[in-house]
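ENTRY TYPE: protein
WANTED: fold as tokens:
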Amino acid sequence: MKILSSKINWMEKCDNNPSFEMDVDKLPPGEDYRWKKYPTSGGAMYVSDNMEFVKFFVQTGDHNGYAGRKFDIIMEDGSTVTLVGPWSSNSSAVRDITGIDCVECSLLETEGDYPRLRYHGLNIRADVARSICESEDAHLIDLQGGINIGRMSESYRSYNVPSMDSEVLVKPRIDNQTKEIRIKNYMTGEWV
């Protein structure tokens, strides 16, 4: 897989949070991914983070996800596991369960089975996201457990963070009851 371009879609004309977009030539075939199992209270989360992308499934007892479709995955030890009707999840849940930092991303595969079709619901590792942010003078910020994208811009709401020299400007997801914001500077890895 070759990354052809990457950018942040700032969603300037709507109220959505900014998002990452990448164009690649072709996604790696499924057999290139290696998976690890993380037990959860209702089953298990299966995660592959051995490439730029983080892929995951959540296997529960009901087997109704993806319309009951079967997925054969290759584990880190080389064994094969068949997941029946697993569910998807989100990057915040992946981080809470596994400790792996990742960020949602949409992807355009230019030479794959469906060229020019943009895939949503994919994730990129936080270190890949950081490199995109550096090229756009942006920052990854942890808001209420979910990683978001922030930058210095008048169109974004301002939050003064006492331990920072300047303001962090983001489109936040704030807990309506507590009004609290947790912020982590993913450029340095420090909580601010």
